[in-house]
Amino acid sequence: MAQTGAVIFLPREEGQTSRMLEELLFDPAALWLAQALEDAGTDRFFVVCHGEDQEKAEPCFPEGTRFVTNGSADAVEQLTGFLQELEGKTVVITRPVLLSWEGARQLTEGGDAGLAGSQDCGIYRAEAAALARALSEGAGLEDALREKADRISGRSAWEQSFSPVRAGPRGRLEAEQTVRQYGAQRLMEQGVRLMDAATCYAGPRVKAGAGTVLLPGVILRGECFLGRDCEIGPHTMIRDCIIGDHVTVNQSQLNESTVEAGAKIGPFAYIRPDCHVGAGVKVGDFVELKNSVIGAETKISHLTYVGDSDVGQKVNFGCGTVTVNYDGATKFRTTIGDNAFIGCNTNLVAPVKVGDGAYTAAGSTITDEVPADSLAIARSMQIVKKQWAAKRRRGRRLK
To answer: In the annotation, is 50 catalytic?
Structure first.
């Protein structure tokens, strides 16, 4: 199978870290560029960077990317060898620049390159074999590109397909506006509806299914996947999550977790890392989950903390429930069986287990196992002192 490639330079200026390694929204510019090329079919990358930048650059590119540092004695030989392994055209980018997803597709698929004009932007496309021959015959890279490559020009149909990453605060602001637009355009190409594209911030590794709607103020960070026909927002942040089909997330934050189809999250819910929320689950207002598995169709409607827990299916959590998972030194887990009913203001002091179909009475502090289909009452007996308040008031008046 033919392999397509890209050669990316991450130049430094005046001793500063490469502008391509500065974050735009929440990801480095190099990641935006690499992801656009990878999604367009580029499967091999060769990166030239300063030695001190390599550690930061590596996470921006796919596994297997070759890195060479500026000034390496065998840099030309390594680049020549890389080009000889490719078939067809390769992309060469020598300056800090961003590519739209459409622009990356045109480059890799061999569309009109908008050949050389007076405004060279540092984007080239060349036959890999021809470029390799020129380098092996002693030509410098600039000469080889001048002779063998198509040079993309700012005076062409390409004008909307790339954007330089300029120095300084203004340049960074322009670049962040550009990637916000690129992220929004990419989601719309996937069939997503954006109610207000100007307030949607989606990173380069975000993917979404057709029919999903993003309301104003949505932030999608890291490696996220949203299923089909979801409704996300308003004012929601999701980071490194997998979201199933037909999920609703309203004014909430989700981190490093999985939410299965049909779940309803929020408003004002907080899902911390390492959670798995089952299909049809309701996580309501002011609910926090952490490192927990929640079974299908469970309802955690409001004002509840579930941490380090394994919860079964069709469990009902009353308002104000707390899993007491930490003793100041060690975290412990709580286990709740299917169809259990947790009464309001219950404290579940881990490690503890509530069996299938069991109930806890409202206001209980549960420290021992509750067997299946049992009722646990763990609260002091109510005592009523009749007329106590009236006597107290009379005593105060006498004084």
So the answer is: no
